[in-house]
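Two entries, shown back to back:
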Amino acid sequence: MTNIKRVREITIEVEKVRVVSNLKKQKIICEICSFTTDFISLNSATQVFQINEEYIAQLARKNIVHIKIENEEILICLKSLMEAKE
């Protein structure tokens, strides 16, 4: 009698998910992305992504996160912020 060993391999992939559907967003053309995308307030970005304003400023200076100022409010390109946080 031969002993046959069976090997079962299980792969689990975990992906981080951020719920941003309840945020106040504005659809604006991001001049850097060249897409119409959602922009969120700086305050919302710091709360949802649990990062501080200085970190966002550093990313913006490096052109990793795109910002826009409208009506004296700093808005963050959600697409670029999510890509930066991956």
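entry 2 starts here
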Amino acid sequence: MIKTIIFKKARKLLEEQKVKVIQQTENKVLFQVDSNETHYVVIKQNHAVSYECDCEFYLRKAREGRNVMCSHVLACLIFMFNQIKKEKKDGGGGQC
């Protein structure tokens, strides 16, 4: 379960336009997220969606073998969802 604080941080990152796509292929998107520090998030979509972030929270929890989602990853997933929603509304068909 994702904690409320992670949602709040993710929403703030999006509201402050801190999430940017810096590279995109057919099944992978690399994001730059500027919070207190700059972090990089990779979201891959093959048969399932997978993600990674270089922030300390994500790396520490992943080393512990825990399934984790940090605010940076959540902000990027919401960003992608919003882009897809906007493209469908506008009648376009982009990848992200």
